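[job 4471] stage=fold_predict status=RUNNING
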Amino acid sequence: MPALTIGLDIAKNVFQIHGVDRQGKAVVQRKLRRAEVLKFFAKVESSLIGIEACHGSHFWARELTSPGHTVRLLPTQYVKPFLVGGKNDANDAAAICAAVTRPGIHSVAIKSAEQQSLQSTHRMRQRLIEERTAKSNQIRSMFAEEGVIFPVGLPQLRKGVVELVNNADTPITPLLRRLGSMYLEQLQALQQWLDELAADIAEIFRSSDACQRLATVPGIGPVIATALVSSV
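[job 4471] inference complete, writing structure tokens
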């Protein structure tokens, strides 16, 4: 049985801990600066540490597992019922401490640094696709004001803008021609980044046994397989 059960409320700079002994008596309640956290837990006997699953929680779970502590990441909805009093750091840490030992509460699996990096890659890819779509819709709208309508599809849009921008006889204003050139430059940059991310995903897919097993399922390719591996 762990020497202590500790609720750790993480933040950017100031962390709050609430620890109880084997009899459930509170024995430690204090704030820690970010630089003090690992130093503090390095001096503590192996304990059960609860952390609310949130931004940065997987990093701290990995760091605190290394010196021999058992870390459980708790979904927010499981911690909230144990909150007593107003919401503040001290009460949040106490609520986490109370929730971490309760039966029937499923903790969140701790992600590796590689999983989180892969997940960030997919998020970046999705954001770039959204930016590309937004830019394309914007340029369609601007040219539509001049009576120019492009066919559906990104290749057709790019081809149409290239033709308009490079044709000096096209009856559009010089400013709109410049906006079209800017769009083409932005589109090229976005596509270059997407191609680089696609290459990274493809390489991870080829080198991952888990991805290769997932790819045996019909309809699952590199993008879906790596997304599953990064998040599940």
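[job 4471] summary: The chain has two domains: 5-99, 113-231.
[job 4471] exit 0
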